[in-house]
Structures are given as structure tokens and as C-alpha cells.
Design a protein that fits this description.
Endo-beta-glucanase, hydrolase, globular, alpha+beta, signal, single chain, about 1050 residues
């Protein structure tokens, strides 16, 4: 875009410059679009298949696990991973009843809601995650528990006033004082909207959580890596990467009651059967759980078991860290600071007797000779499986240790899996695994030197900070530490996406020879240092707006007049309800935040197409007023299941589970499942409303409502806004979100829909843009860039993506993860095993940011692997629309033919590929739209005040509050009423340029695209059965026309 503007300024200077201008201008007209789609109609009445979050490693379901669903034709959607290990390698944990973990898919809304027109395709759910007693139908049933048997409050929910309103006096504006993106709350008003009542008792208890003074009275993270420590049995594993930790709780061959530390090498992974899709890839892979390589325990814990007095408590529960305490007889016997990426696992003792156990067993335990570090005793544990662990004990008589006198830990080895201290001990015991390889090899020697230097110091937490400078965004992990040797640098492990984005300074701290495998994130490498800084290019997210977008051309609003006329007839039916039973008020009246959000977002996208691309402002006005009324039903909390503020964990949740006693209602929203999916659609809709009518966002109630949902999923700091945890779902260590809420899972947190994850961050970006929230805007641009990198490293597999060398070669042929857990990846969905389900759940919704995450090379490879040669036409119902909307990113004209049944704009379409064949329908540069000055990327003559404004069709980058196109991506919010200045390149000039080029030679100018097999066009086009109730043909066609230059 910058190059284009500079060329325009000297376009009369040389023929070469003029030719370059023609080519670049053409590119801006060719690749522009996005589609909105959701789960298709075909699966709404289907049953939800149970999925084994807690494989018992025996390879079969127990009698308790058998369900009608699990014995059906698609029962193999559930994968029980069978560990190929010996009894020494793994512990067979008892199976868990899936009723504690899973739920069924809701029924169609048309069957359960008297307010829903049965002839209207309804919004379908995204398959969600584990729930106890999940018998939910998505309906609004009467409570299913009696007052005596229900684990829920007997009343529907407590309508107490919201918590006391608190104003952050230190942040009275969105302007940051210290430059840190994470030091500014979403809104200076920290109150909960008055329409949302407070609920004091959540049905999921906060087991063993005691926040210290440091933690304060802040909200508790619900979707983070450490949740198994305070959920359910509290004995499922927690993955810090590369290690996993587990409260042994007397289970397995070790029989210990301490903290079990495990690590699985890539060679120990178990791969499933070949996926039936014909790719030749394994359907799943995972690592053994419960190995208990080394167990750090204490004599009081082992004896305390006899009286049943052992408890696990957690303290200082934060986003990337937690303190675990094992208690016996009321006394803390062992404390372990747990931090993501920690290089050594540390246990702290105070006048206790350490006990070291192992579920693997050891061949030999030896004490190192000489002095490693003052006051440190070192042991080497050579395990039965051939691996070697190092154990460091720092402590005893601390004053004696500092003087260099004896006082360290002495172990009495009792057999091949128990060692007990010979006396009372105060200090720390740390363990670390040496990388694979023979003793004396470089990686083993280097690792031992690193551990020797770092012992005595341990990480306790992570402070996150960040900034955006021009087109570069940075986020930094500042590791907090404690210990006797605080001058020693920490050893931490970095995942592949960290390594690829390290700053030059952080890269210099990497020790590439010291590496350990992770379960699902490739190989982690050691970094010596107390601070990491990662860098991302944020220019592309900052060039996005509401209209179709491509990485090459940015945002473009131009399509031909004939294409506009065709889409207009479709939009009139979909937006104004002239056919198919379309009705905004009716369709958006849903018993679910997920359903409701999908329906609202569908119409919001139609409004963007109608107003900004078609220029039909009168039609847009009518639809806009209906959408405002529909949105008000939710913002005033008058929907079928109102929201409540949960005081136990700290968050805004659906009242559905309180009302029905069913944890599975609304996909576990009450239990914090999928909040970024659910609320992301509302945030996007609010952004569109603010974009089309800035006065709507100036309403305090509208602003407060959307901001409260933003705060629930993307609060940058719980210390500044204690009502919500920091980034409830998004994990800054992993670079993506976890959708799994307050349910124990033996494979850790998980997420299925990577595309809905990116949707929620895009929605945050657009809300910030529409409301001039600079900190949120820059933070969301950084977050979306990080997310794109992470998804292309772990979720989306193509020959050009980093994932091709990160994930196992036996699995990447699947092209997408399916469901990614912390311990395994399974190429299935929570609702079935059909190919369009598994691939499609990572496609929807199609929005302007889609091509930023799902690049064309990936889309081409996935299409040719699974959907070419007519395979896409076999997809059921609305999935067909999802697939062809995705196909439009590589062949928009071919997709147009399929969507329209061959009805082409005036100049026709190509017979394959994405090429400019003419200037269809006359002046292709005459489109109008909303070019407001509050941050949309479309620039021109429009104002930011109403839907009646117009805008140019070519986007020079603008940012919140910037009225002038700029070559950088910095944002300086100003009033939304400030109009934009004229664009550097007008819409009419673009049209004239294209026509002149065509008049000279009628030549075809190809766009940089990737050709895929041409689909078969259906003569009568797509009918209602092929467009899901949460998607729209209007948006699909707008996507195709913009990207295809139609």
C-alpha cells in the first residue's frame, strides 16, 4: 500500500512507474472479501458424541463410560489413547465417568423455542467442552434436580445488586502513562453494568484455593494450565512444558502422596489408527500420563494418608503461575512454585523430612563429588527407562550453608523407588531431566552445566508487559524469582513460536543444544535469563477494517455495479425478511449466548456488506435499527437466560446452569467454557453498530455492556481490574486460547475451533477501532499477530507453515489439529467425524482477518487433500457453504459460480483461477460506504457519524482516531466525530485506471494467488439448505466479488 501511494505521486514520470501503478491498482481490486459462516443445519438435530478427555490408557471404555452415543455409528469420534508402555512407564489411573466431563449437542432452536419461526434455519452451536452431568439439550427446560438432590442453588439465580462500583482514578483516560500495553484497564469505570445482577455461589467450588495478600481479592483464572490443581479430584496432570506435574494422591506404582514430576520424550508418543479420510495420517497422537518419573514428597504426607488428612491447596493463582501446597494435619509439608516453562521443578520444605519416590524406578542413585555451589548437594538418578534426572538440594542450616559448612540433604536410598532424608530439612529440592543422549554428549554436558549454574534459584511468576512502536509489537515475560542465589539466572524453556519471534537480545540467551520434547508443541529449548522479549509485525492487523481484506491489498470496498445489483437482491431477502422467514428480531432471540451471538454477528456482517460495499444506505438504516433493538435485548439482560456476575470465580456467566441445574446448558457457559467464542460474536456486533452509528457507542449503557464482555475475556490486568482474571482464555505462553473451563481433564486444557479463537481477537480489534480505545487496539493487533504465528505452528499444517516441522510427520497430513489438548491432538470434533466437520470447524466464521491466519498455500493444500474433485459437493447442509466460502480465498470467481449457480456479473467470470477479466458492470469504482474517521481502514470523504456517509474503495491504512492515511500503524485516538480527509487514491481513479489498461490490450492481469482444482458449479445455485442459519449468502457473495474483482 505504501508503495502504491508513492508511485501515484510520480505516476507521470516514467512509463515503468505507470505500468507499476496499473498492476498494483489492479491488485487492490481483485483480492478483497470475507464470509461469515457457522455450524451447519445438518448437525443441529444430531446427537453429541462423547469424547474421552480422560483416557484411561487401557484402550477401552469402562461400563460406566458406555453411553448410547458411544455405541453408535460415529462412536469412534471418541478416542481412547492406548499407551504402549510397560508397567514401569505409566500409571493406570482409574477411569472417570464421562458424565462428569462431557455434554450433548443442543436440539434445534426451532424445536424448542416458541419464539423461533420453525421455517427459519437457526444458528447452530460450536461444539464445546467437558461438563459434569451434561445432559443439556440447548432448550429451556424446567429444573431437573429437586431441591434436595440438586448441587445447584434452589432458586434460579440470586438477583443481588452488582458488586460495588469502583473507579480506577489512576486511569481516567485510555492514554497510557508508562507505555505498557498491559497497564491500562479496558475502561476506567470498573463497575459491573447495573443490568447484570450478582451471584455469590458458583456450583463449581474453588477447591483448596486461598489467595494470599499478594493475590489479593482478585478474580481467579478459570481456563489456565493449572486448573486441574483445584478442580474435581485435583489429581489430574498439569503441563508446564516440558514437564507435567500431578498430585500423586497414593495412585500408581509409587503409591506416593507428593508431587509427581513427569516428562515424555517424542519416542514415547502413542499414535492412533490411520485416519479414515484417506490422508494416510494418524488420527491422533498423545503421550502417557501419570508416569511419575520423580515424586517429591514428605514423610508427613506419606503418613498423613493413613488418617486421610492430606490436602492440596493452591495460593497466588495467576495466569502463568501458581503456588501448590501439600498439607497434612493442618501443616504445610511441601510447597511448589509452578510456572509455565520452568526448567527445574522446585519443592520447598520447612523442618520436614523429604521423601523421593518414582513410578518408573531407578537403576542407580549417586551423590556428586565436590562442590557444585555453596550449600548445594547434587544427586544423579539413573532411571529404569534409561533417562537421567538430576536432583539438587539447597538448604539445611542456611547460615552454615552460607559459610560453606555441611548442612545439606542426605538421602537414604531404600530400594529402587524410595529415598528418605536422614533428618529434618529446611530448604529446597529441585529436579531436572537431562536431554536424551549418552553421557558425555554435548547436549547432556551443556544441560548439566546449565542446571548446576541455576540451582538454588527458582521462578515464582511472570509479569507480562508489552508495547507497539510503529509496525512492531513486543511482549515481554519478566520472570520473578526467589532462592538463596538470586544473582543466578533462571533456566526456562521456550516453545517453537517463542524461538521464532525472539528479539536479538533474547536470542543470544538461547542454548540450542539443551532441548526437551513437549507433548503437543514440538521441541522446547533452554533460555538462560530472567526476561524474554518476543516481537511481532502488527502492520497487517492494523490495516484491517470491517470490509473484505487481503494481505496484499488491504481493505477494498469496490465491486462492480452488476455484482452489487445481484447481491442487493439477496440482501433484501436476508436482511429485511422478504423470504426464507428471515427476521432479525426473531432469529436473534435465542436461549444461548452462543446462539444469540452467532445470529447477531450474521446480521452485523450483512449490514457491513450492504452499507460499506453496496452503498445501499437506506436498506442499511432499516436493518441497523432492527439490529439495535435485537442487541438491546441482550445489553438490557432480557434474553431467555440472563447473565449474572459470578462472585466466586469472578466473571460474567449465563444463568442457565443456575436455573436448570444442568452444567451443559449453553455449552457450559456458566462454567466458563467458550467465553471467547460466545462473547466474541457480541463484541464484533457491538463494533459494527459503533462503526455504522458512533452515537450508539456513546451511550453509557451500550459502551458498558460491550466493555464488560471484553473485560471478561481480555482484561489486561487483574490487579487493575480485580473483577475479572487477566485474559481468561488467551494463553500468552502458548500463543492461543484454551476453551476448556471449570472441568477436570486428564489431558489438560483444550481448544477445538482455532478460527473462532482468531475471530474473538479480531472482534476486540474492531471494537477498539470503532471506539478509539488505543491500548486495546494495539494490544489486540499484537495478540492477533501472535495468534496467527501460534496457530500456524501448532494447529494448521501445510508445507510452508512452521507446523510441518514442529508437529509429528505421522500427523500433519490431517492438515488441521482437530482438537488440540495440552497432552494430545485428536483429528476429530466434539460432534462427529465427517471430514467437513473436522476441517470446517477451523474455517468458520469467515471474516476479514481470515486470510491473515489461513494463508492461501494452506487453503490450497487442504482443499486438494480433502475437497477437490467434487468432494465438497457431498458435504451436508450448511457445511457446503462453509467449504466454498473457504475456497473463495483461493478461487473467488469459481466460488461465485457455485454460490450463484453460474449467474455471473455483466462481464462474466473466469473458468478457473482468480484473474481480472474486465471491468464488470461499468464503473467499478463507484461504490459507496461508511468511511468513518474513527478508525475504519476505508478512507475517503465519509464522516464517522451515520450510515449515510460514503467512502472511497481503497484503503490507505488508518487507525483509531487517525483521520489521515499513514504508512505506519500507530494509533492516536481522537473524537469519533472528526471526519476523514480525502484518500490519496480515489475510487473513480481506480476504475479509470483499470479501464484504460483494458482498452490498451484487454490483457488479463493475474493476481498472486494459488490455483486449486475448480469446483463443479450447481446451476440453480445455493439454496437455504446450503447456507447455515448463522451465515448469509450476502456475505459469501460479497467475499467472492471483492476477492475476485467482480
Amino acid at each position: 500500500m505504501i508503495g502504491f501511494i508513492n508511485t501515484e505521486r510520480r505516476r507521470h514520470s516514467t512509463p515503468v512507474a505507470w505500468s507499476l501503478l496499473l498492476w498494483l491498482t489492479t491488485l487492490l481490486q481483485i483480492q478483497q472479501a470475507a464470509c461469515l459462516a457457522i455450524i451447519p443445519e445438518s448437525i443441529r438435530a444430531g446427537r453429541r458424541y462423547y469424547y474421552p478427555f480422560a483416557p484411561n490408557w487401557r484402550g477401552s471404555l469402562t461400563q460406566e463410560e458406555m453411553t448410547p452415543e458411544s455405541s453408535g455409528a460415529d462412536a469412534d469420534a471418541s478416542t481412547n489413547v492406548q499407551a504402549a508402555t510397560t508397567s514401569d512407564d505409566a500409571v493406570n489411573l482409574p477411569a472417570r465417568n464421562p458424565d462428569e466431563l462431557y455434554k450433548t449437542i443442543p436440539k434445534p432452536i426451532s424445536e424448542i423455542s416458541s419464539k423461533m419461526a420453525v421455517t427459519t434455519p437457526t444458528v447452530a452451536p460450536s461444539p464445546s467442552y467437558s461438563c459434569p452431568s451434561c445432559k443439556g439439550t440447548g432448550s429451556k427446560p424446567s429444573p431437573v434436580f429437586s431441591a434436595s438432590s440438586s448441587p445447584f442453588p434452589s432458586k434460579e439465580y440470586s438477583q443481588q445488586p452488582p458488586p460495588i462500583n469502583r473507579i480506577n482514578s489512576n486511569n481516567s483516560t485510555s492514554k497510557r502513562s508508562d507505555g505498557d500495553l498491559f497497564s491500562t484497564p479496558i475502561n476506567p469505570d470498573l463497575s459491573i453494568p447495573q443490568s447484570i445482577p450478582s451471584q455469590p455461589n458458583h456450583p463449581a467450588p474453588c477447591k483448596g484455593i486461598k489467595q494470599s495478600q499478594e493475590g489479593g481479592d482478585t478474580a481467579i483464572p478459570t481456563n489456565k494450565f493449572h486448573a486441574n490443581f483445584f478442580l474435581g479430584s485435583q489429581s489430574s496432570s498439569v503441563w508446564t512444558h516440558p514437564y507435567s506435574l500431578q498430585w500423586a494422591k497414593g495412585q500408581g506404582s509409587s503409591g506416593a502422596w507428593g508431587l509427581a514430576v513427569s516428562h515424555a520424550d517424542a519416542s514415547q508418543r502413542v499414535f492412533g489408527e490411520q485416519d479414515p479420510n484417506g490422508s494416510g495420517a494418524a488420527r491422533w497422537f498423545g503421550s502417557p500420563v501419570g508416569r511419575a518419573d520423580v515424586v517429591l514428597s514428605e514423610q508427613g504426607l506419606e503418613k498423613g494418608n493413613a488418617t486421610g488428612g492430606v490436602e492440596l491447596m493452591t495460593q497466588d493463582v495467576k495466569e502463568q503461575s501458581v503456588r501448590v501446597q501439600l498439607v497434612a494435619g493442618g501443616d504445610v509439608k511441601l510447597e511448589a512454585p509452578v510456572v509455565q516453562g520452568m526448567g527445574m521443578v522446585t519443592a520447598l520444605y520447612k523442618q520436614g523430612t523429604p521423601v523421593i519416590k518414582s513410578g518408573i524406578g531407578w537403576k542407580m542413585v549417586t551423590q556428586a563429588m565436590g562442590v557444585v555451589k555453596t550449600g548445594v548437594v547434587k544427586y544423579r538418578l539413573v532411571m529404569e527407562d534409561g533417562n537421567t534426572w538430576l536432583l539438587y538440594a539447597t538448604g539445611g542450616d542456611v547460615s552454615a550453608i552460607k559459610r560453606g559448612e555441611p548442612g545439606g540433604l542426605e538421602l537414604d536410598v531404600q530400594g529402587n523407588n524410595v529415598a528418605v532424608a536422614k533428618g529434618s530439612f529446611t530448604g529446597m529440592v529441585q529436579v531436572a531431566k537431562l536431554p536424551g543422549g549418552a553421557n558425555g554428549t554435548e547436549e547432556v554436558t551443556d544441560a548439566e552445566k546449565l542446571y548446576d549454574a541455576a540451582c538454588g534459584t527458582y521462578a515464582t511468576g511472570v509479569e507480562l508487559s508489552g508495547s507497539v512502536d510503529g509496525q512492531t509489537g513486543r511482549y515481554t515475560f519478566n520472570f520473578q524469582k526467589e532462592g538463596l542465589s538470586t544473582n543466578s539466572s533462571l533456566v526456562m524453556f521456550a516453545l517453537p513460536h517463542h524461538q521464532a519471534s525472539f528479539s536479538a537480545d533474547t536470542t543470544s540467551k538461547v542454548v540450542p543444544s539443551v532441548k526437551l520434547d513437549t507433548t503437543t508443541k514440538g521441541v522446547a529449548v533452554a533460555v538462560v535469563g530472567d526476561q524474554w522479549t518476543m516481537e511481532e509485525d502488527v502492520s497487517k492487523p492494523m490495516s484491517m477494517g470491517f470490509v473484505p481484506w487481503t494481505p496484499e491489498a488491504g481493505s477494498v470496498k469496490t465491486i462492480s455495479d452488476s455484482a452489487k445489483e445481484y447481491i442487493k437482491t439477496v440482501a433484501q431477502k436476508e436482511l429485511l425478511g422478504t423470504s426464507q422467514g428471515q427476521d432479525i428480531l426473531n432469529q436473534t432471540d435465542q436461549p444461548s449466548m452462543y446462539f444469540g451471538g452467532k445470529a447477531l454477528a450474521k446480521f452485523a456482517a450483512i449490514l457491513v456488506a450492504v452499507n460499506d460495499v453496496l452503498g445501499e444506505t437506506d436498506m442499511a438504516k432499516k436493518g441497523l435499527e432492527q439490529l439495535k433493538v435485537s442487541f438491546a435485548r441482550y445489553s438490557e439482560n432480557q434474553q431467555q437466560y440472563p447473565l449474572v456476575y459470578d462472585q466466586s470465580w469472578g466473571g460474567i456467566v449465563s444463568s442457565a446452569s443456575y436455573t436448570t441445574g444442568d452444567a451443559g446448558v449453553d455449552f457450559g457457559n456458566t462454567y466458563y467454557n467458550d467465553h471467547h467464542f460466545h462473547y466474541g460474536y457480541f463484541i464484533y456486533t457491538g463494533a459494527v453498530l459503533a462503526h455504522l452509528d458512533p452515537t450508539w457507542a456513546s451511550s453509557a449503557s451500550n459502551l458498558a455492556y460491550v466493555n464488560s464482555l471484553v473485560r471478561d475475556v481480555a482484561n489486561p490486568s487483574s490487579s487493575l481490574d480485580p473483577h475479572f482474571p487477566s485474559f481468561r482464555t488467551f494463553d500468552w505462553y502458548h500463543g492461543h486460547s484454551w476453551a476448556h473451563g471449570l472441568f477436570e481433564s486428564s489431558d489438560g486444557k483444550d481448544q477445538e475451533s482455532s478460527s473462532e479463537d482468531s475471530m474473538h481477537v479480531y472482534a476486540l480489534l474492531m471494537w477498539a477501532q470503532a471506539t478509539n480505545n488505543q491500548a486495546l487496539y494495539q494490544r489486540s493487533a499484537l495478540q492477533l499477530s501472535l495468534l496467527s504465528r501460534s496457530l500456524n505452528s501448532y494447529y494448521l499444517y501445510s508445507s510452508s507453515n512452521p507446523s510441518s516441522s514442529i508437529q509429528p510427520k505421522e500427523f500433519v497430513g490431517n492438515k488441521v489439529a482437530g482438537i488440540l489438548f495440552e497432552n494430545k491432538i485428536d483429528h476429530v470434533t466434539f460432534f462427529g467425524t465427517k471430514q467437513e466437520y473436522i476441517q470446517g470447524i477451523h474455517m468458520l466464521p469467515l471474516m476479514p482477518h481470515t486470510l491473515f491466519v489461513r494463508n492461501r498455500e494452506f487453503v490450497k493444500e487442504e482443499w486438494e487433500a480433502f475437497f477437490a474433485g467434487g468432494a465438497a459437493d457431498k458435504a451436508e447442509g450448511g457445511w457446503k457453504g462453509v467449504l466454498y466460502g473457504n475456497y473463495a480465498t483461493i478461487d473467488p470467481r469459481g466460488a461465485w459460480e457455485v454460490f450463484t449457480g453460474g449467474a455471473t456479473p455483466a462481464a462474466g467470470v473466469s473458468t478457473g483461477g482468480s484473474q481480472l477479466v474486465g471491468s464488470p458492470g461499468g464503473d467499478s469504482g463507484s461504490g459507496s460506504g461508511n468511511g468513518n474517521g474513527n478508525g475504519t481502514t476505508g478512507t475517503g470523504t465519509g464522516t464517522g457519524e451515520s450510515v449515510t456517509s460514503t467512502a472511497s474503495t481503497v484503503s490507505a491504512t488508518t487507525t483509531p482516531g487517525s483521520s489521515t492515511p499513514t504508512s505506519t500503524a500507530t494509533a492516536t485516538p481522537t473524537s469519533t466525530s472528526v471526519p476523514t480527509t480525502p484518500s490519496a487514491v480515489s475510487s473513480k481513479m481506480v476504475g479509470r485506471t483499470i479501464r484504460r489498461a483494458l482498452e490498451k490490450g484487454k490483457e488479463k492481469m493475474g493476481m498472486p494467488s494459488i490455483r486449486a482444482t475448480q469446483p463443479k458449479a450447481k446451476k440453480d445455485g445455493f439454496g437455504p439448505e446450503n447456507i447455515d442459519g448463522g451465515a448469509s449468502l450476502t456475505w459469501y457473495l460479497t467475499w467472492c466479488a471483492a476477492l475476485g474483482g467482480l
